[in-house]
């Protein structure tokens, strides 16, 4: 790295640029990925806690996240919660030891605010004010010609354990619509506005009702009670912990009180002050029958101008989170639900999120949340109001969900979007680092800049089997659970430093500066985890250069959302376009609030281009409330569509034509392919992260990038090694860089455009050679080819060079190998009894005359472990020796597993695991050469033997499949 830094300095690169390059080579610890670390309560040993922190540090992670999680132990099983549960003395002592050891290694430390999730503390019961509440319905139908005289319909569902109180909230009668011919069907349609309040008719628990007409009527009752929900994997404490009311400040205060009384000792506060600390909350997985809080009715009327009781059947859920009732008018149903979830979002932010953040920040701690889990609730606004919003690769069915968090981060100027990485369903002990890479690289493009690997389990717990306690497997007691229990128990952990190094360097760049994008796509409700994929922009559009994030109405009206020079948020996202689609979750109806319509019109008048997709001839109000008028919205949209810089297209297929009418193109452009990208503006630097977003498609094309300075040089940053090199081939025309990019499936490329104050640097603009490389240290260009003859290279100064090269040495197919495998097995019996954490390593030594995966080798079919392939080969002859005019690539056929390589006894730097071809020229010599390739597997194949009833997937096929040495000829440009 020193040579490139010196050279760039001599060309006029700034001191800040060279500092960034030096830090990239060895990034700050806290920019590296963290790991989620699961404990079985305080049933841990202090020495083992310290040992595991050291293991995490040695593997290259930047922080720990402590969680009390043991979901592999059947819910309701008490594992010494009274003496060793969450926040008991043994647990606190272990936390102090973990923090102290983390500080010694310079690791950050994050913690959940309570045991498991959702948050709660053991100071109140399920009937008490702080506990989560639910509203549950009862129903009876009165058919035409009859009357009802009987008990108020009881709740359809019994309360959870220990819930002893419930209060009748409403008793109503509703006319069933003629659209419902069968009241046992779901949904049952009701006539909006037909509600008759029967509260005054309730006597002694009974109610009388005579229908006013011959229609079928519904007698509808609701009851409010504690949900009785406990954090996942309960019990964690004695007395029991119940989930807090997330919509009332009565829910957060006990959390503050408990921490301040039991956990925030002087020692704890001192420990967390040494390195960065974050309190985190997992996704909002509330298990109420229907969401409720005592203050909701008054807040609802104040916000929306009408009584929530007039829509109560529509917002009260039935079994399995279904809505039993809808209004016959679908628009009224849609708008009523929008109002209800809009209020829930407001209550969550005002009464839970904001107080939590303020409290944490006052302690010098950041607050990180996963702001989703309640369908239809605005998580984008919540993401913008915390220190670090977080998503997850498990719960997010579409990578576009991250764009919601990214939009919030851009508009709120947050440097980190976190990600719970690698929690794959039914994949415990089956995860490879390649799968992690294929997951995280597209997520980086979608906005992620920090990862928390899921995860690492403490060594042991009651009832565990080999190789030790695993927090998420088996799940439900009898099936393979969630990935993953990383750590020294896993063969692939051997290669963890290579991957944490890669992610840490990418994250270092992606946390710098500000993300800039082309399109701000407006989501009507701001839902984060709905798996929404917009038309064109993140699919076909991303494949030609469009960069898109999602925003909601709150961000549209935020302080950052000004328009200047035709750009929205010019100091942050610098968007050239706002796009919006007729609501795909609202029957395709075009909907807006009055406020959003007015804001869009104002932005368009200020010069911002807007693309509207779908039928916007008759837009409706997002809300049912008195504060929003469909007629007013329709009039505003009509005036909006009359502007030249606003275009309405009928559907996704017409989006490109609409963009052409607007005269807008993405900032970065390339031909249609699997290539996607994200970019960061970092002072005078511009960083670009490209990924081939395909499991099979290779990218080989030229990208066009704008320059902000007259004289620049593109620098290739290698996140695997920390090295940097000036790109040898590119052209500059009309203020744009044109750079060739070649990527294998899911491979990435990180390029920084560096401004220079000195003279233009020499580089090639094109060449008939197979490749051109830039020699570190000298800056000289070298051409390479496998065919003999002359190659022509044109430089940026217009000079053309013809270089004559010799024929390359013959290609070698390496088929004969010695293979040594360490087979990981339980050391004590079959792994289900005895010392279940002890592992033995059974050595297999094989001589191979061809390469095939281990499932085809009888001795290795059920093996998990580490293998070392070794062989020798001869390069060069007396007549045509291997010399500085020759070189060679190591080419690997794609295989399952991670690897490291030695050539002639020298360990190579970490290799890009997605690249498949590697320049090993500098380690080769004329004559005999040796090569070793060390591979690592998952643990699945062995777990299929240890617990065959749990680990039922097919064997995973590990092992090398093909290795070639591909020589080439090379020469300095002359």
From TrEMBL:
What is the taxonomic lineage of the source species? Eukaryota, Fungi, Dikarya, Ascomycota, Pezizomycotina
The species this protein was found in? Aspergillus nanangensis
Stated name of the protein: Uncharacterized protein
Q: Which PANTHER family match?
A: DNA-BINDING PROTEIN (PUTATIVE SECRETED PROTEIN)-RELATED (PTHR36848), SECRETED PROTEIN (PTHR36848:SF2)
